[in-house]
């Protein structure tokens, strides 16, 4: 018999983790429920948000300041405040460890903090991307160490984030929200929480199903990007422009969706999520070869880019790569964002350093490289400001990220050789000595 009531009232919502997923969600919840507690273990983040300063470039300071000043959004690093919430939503990172295995340390830490303050009738929702079974096999036992039982004393559900940083067309409110739970009462509670915050809630039969939905979405993208990368290699050998091929194929109104090659995968999802499923599949004596092959292709792309830099410098400029000054354009993993997590540019810059290349970088979204998660030698480097005088000091420009704010015409006019991994110059019709890589 259920101890928790079936009437769902959420006067206060807590969001654990205030990054690219948690902060937009917290602000949306504040608009709906009027009182949101934002929790994070990063004191600098808490201090900045409390002062009305956004920690994400795509979210204006004004939105944060308005929510804080109106009393709708309070910030804390004290886990005891979580007991005041009717619903606690977990939005923490789920990286891979050095062996490319799931690292659930952040979920486990968040679970312990919630468990220490858990009370009857609360709803806990995990939004962090992870393998099927994490909610019930990892988070639930941690929460139940409090002495309370999931689905009887408190609700428990999984609802995958679907954020796309830099996307101005689709955001939290107009992207359908997947929600899964292992009992009808927990599912009803989670659906009730998100209704009114998003335009459409899509309930599924279990937390495992919802976890699998998220992985499927990102594996789909990873596999198709790998295909585009492999086609690029094949067509390059045939002296065929893969960008022209893809653009022409994209005119077909059915049966085709364009994906584009690049220097490798970056961000908090696509380079990581496929490995969560392949790791979990081993528990069932299965090897998802197709997914692993796609991972191998995408992971190898930075090496191909550096190889292209070496060859193009020698052929086009008749110089050894360690005899030129090189400008890396873009450190963020995609254009229009400041996020450098898993960015292929980091690996490329490390390899350039090992080759003895004298390089600098420019990124209008990343004025300074701070936390790199595995590239400590790059931390503290700063973006160079571009001017004709500065540009003329470089021999080669390497496009890793095609930010719209960059003056590509000035680069083409002042730098002798451009190596373009994003088709940024030809797509914009900018004349330059360009080698697509």
Structural overview:
The relative contact order is 0.08. The chain starts with 12 loop residues before the first strand and ends with a strand. With 437 residues, it is α/β, with parallel strands linked by helices. The model has no long low-confidence stretch (mean pLDDT 95). The protein is built from 14 helices and 13 strands. Helices cover 38% and strands 12% of the residues. It has helices at residues 22-33, 43-50, 61-69, 105-115, 134-144, 184-194, 207-237, 242-249, 273-281, 289-317, 344-354, 388-391, 408-414, 424-428, and strands spanning 13-16, 36-39, 73-76, 87-90, 123-126, 155-158, 177-180, 201-204, 325-329, 358-362, 396-399, 417-420, 434-436. The longest helix is centred in the middle third of the chain and has 31 residues, at 207-237.
